[in-house]
Amino acid sequence: MIRFSVLGFKGGVGKSTISLLLAKKLAETYRVTLVDRDNTNTIGRLYGLNNGLINALSEGKEDNFLTRDGNLQVVSMVRFFPRRIPSPEELAPIYRDILKDSDVLITDNPPNLDELCEIEYKAYRLATGEAHCNSIFVTTPGVALRLTLKHMNEVPGLLREWVPDTRYFRLTALVINMVKGEVEDVPVERKVVIPFHREMFYSGLQVDSYLPGIENLVELTKNTIQLELVNEEERTQLSRKA
Ligand SMILES: Nc1ncnc2c1ncn2[C@@H]1O[C@H](COP(=O)(O)OP(=O)(O)OP(=O)(O)O)[C@@H](O)[C@H]1O
Ligand SMILES: [Mg+2]
């Protein structure tokens, strides 16, 4: 399974929007799980999920944190403040069960990588036997973009503190969202520019929303998946030979 983390250091820049639109597009080809890791439960709410997996574990209730829409599985990780935070070991068996039939995992994260992000990442490691990160940073232009460029290099170190045997950290894309006019030139190769879309801004994120420019991100993500599938095949062959 290949894992993508949608990250950003500022609120309201479009992380959840990008996560959902990307997940839906990839689900046309792959079996995708989209994990809403944000306390605001933006995506979970769109799918009528009124519970979080962490809340369900903490309160012993098993219902309404997961739904399926064709090849897309949507999981709400947390809703408001759970009474108790489970350990990664506690989360891992149920997470393994949720992820077992997926090719691709996309996590939508809050602006600050908090304790729940750490627990999710550790549980992922326990559930799947390995950990890696294909990152998609989302920002708006201007100050937010400069903040992102300044801090994005700190994320790999943090992930390795959480899971020391993290296999790799790669940048899949830097998404500059809500661009009006020209965007400043930044020294990043995998850059995707998404224009400000008036209709989306006024109607808010819906399950059937569309954002012009998302195709470029889908393309970069699919390339990453193809590369990882080849690498996975090579690793399997090597371990068979050993
Ligand atoms: N390219 C765009 N043009 C116009 N509006 C957009 C665009 N992308 C996202 N939006 C709108 O911006 C708002 C914030 O988006 P979203 O909730 O995805 O941000 P977020 O980064 O996930 O926020 P949070 O930090 O609260 O989780 C939403 O109303 C969404 O519809
Ligand atoms: Mg969000």
Write a brief structural summary.
With about 240 residues, the protein is α/β, with parallel strands linked by helices. Helix content is about 40%, strand content about 20%. An eight-stranded mixed sheet has the order 3-4-2-5-1-6-7-8.
The rounded distance between the terminal residues' Cα atoms is 22 Å
Number of strands: 8
CATH architecture title: 3-Layer(aba) Sandwich
Rg of Cα set: 17 Å
| Sheet with most strands | 8 strands, mixed
Number of separate structural domains: 1
Mean pLDDT: 93
Contiguous uncertain segments of 5+ residues: none
The CATH topology name reads Rossmann fold
**By helix and strand content, what is the structural category?**
alpha/beta
Give the CATH class.
Alpha Beta
Q: What ligand species are in this complex? A: adenosine-5'-triphosphate, magnesium ion
Overall form = globular
Please count the helical segments: 9
> Helix coverage percent of residues?
40-55%
What share of residues are in beta strands? 15-25%
Strand order of the largest sheet: 3-4-2-5-1-6-7-8
Under CATH, the homologous superfamily reads P-loop containing nucleotide triphosphate hydrolases
Secondary-structure topology with pairs:
Elements: E1 2-7, H1 15-26, E2 32-36, H2 42-46, H3 53-59, E3 66-69, E4 72-76, H4 88-99, E5 104-108, H5 115-128, E6 133-139, H6 143-151, H7 155-162, E7 169-179, E8 191-195, H8 198-203, H9 214-241
Parallel strand pairs: 1-5, 1-6, 2-4, 2-5, 6-7, 7-8
Antiparallel strand pairs: 3-4
Helix pairs in contact: 1-9, 4-5
